[in-house]
Structures are given as structure tokens and as C-alpha cells.
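ARCHIVE ENTRY
Sequence with per-residue C-alpha cells
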Amino acid sequence: MTNSNIPKRYWSDLKKRLTEEGSELYENIVRLKLKVQDGKLRETDTLDTKGILRLIESIPSPKAEPFKLWLANLGSERIDEVFDPEITVNRAVEYYRKRGYDDKWIKARLTGIVDRFKLTDVWKESGITNSFEYGILTNEIYKEWSGMKANEYKTYKGLRKESLRDNMTDIEVALTDLGEIASA
């Protein structure tokens, strides 16, 4: 992306420049042992998704420009959604349609999102405040209808980062919603 003849040197100089500019990006670099071209494990600088996107923003290169434009478009779209939240809902509906879900499933999924908010509001009113506690209660709901915790069910479905609910059948969505409604 940088057209550098010596990428290692470019990366070293970029990290130095980022540190001098006070960028938080350098502090987010984690070194992990990864397999490299020679097949050996070597300590390698890594970043999470947000860090990678921030890194791309800092690269002065024509090859980085398409990514920068894409990021700018995403930012603009999200700002538009702040002023008109229906845009977000429309985008979600279109996303689900493109993935092949029918309108009945989409309606159940969106209703499930609202029902989940109702449930977490009840939990908040009961003094439950952190995500760990939400996780315990959510796992109990999943175990009741599936026999598995949420993360076990995700593994069963072969999912990694994807939304579990977005990969459920009509019946699975209904059972999850029913469990949450009953819990509220």
C-alpha cells in the first residue's frame, strides 16, 4: 500500500512518527507470534480492526486513498443516521434481504431486538449493570431452550464473530424471543 522498497523500515519510521504525533495507535499495537514466509513463528506487530483502519488513515499513499474514501463514506452515512435513524433500520432490512431472509424472519428479528432492550431494561431496574451479569442471564435463557450457552451455540453453528441471532432459523429466533419475553 505504501510502495516502500523497505517495508520494515517504513513501518519503523511510521511507528516513530505516530508516537511523536501523540497517536494512541502505537500504544494499541500487540506483538504476537505469527507464522511468517519462512514458516517460522516470529513476533509480529498486530492491531485490532479499529487500529488497522486508523493506520490506513495515516498512510500517505495513492493506494490507501480508496480505503480512506470508503472510511469517509461510512462516517458520513453514520452521521446521517444520527439525524434520521430510519436510515439505519432500512439498511438493516436491506442487509437481511440481500442475505436471503424473508420479510417474516426480518420482522421477527427486529422485534427480537426491541424485546431484548425491554429485557435488559428490566435487568437494569433489578440492579444488573455489567456485561458479565448480562452474559450469565443470557446463557440461562439459551440453555433452557437449546441446552447450550450462547457461546457454545455459536460454536455449534460454526460462527466466529458473526451475530448468533442473524444466523438463526425462524424457530430459533422465536425460541430466543420467547425465552427473553418470559424472563422479563
Summary: The longest strand covers residues 30-35. The mean pLDDT is 90.
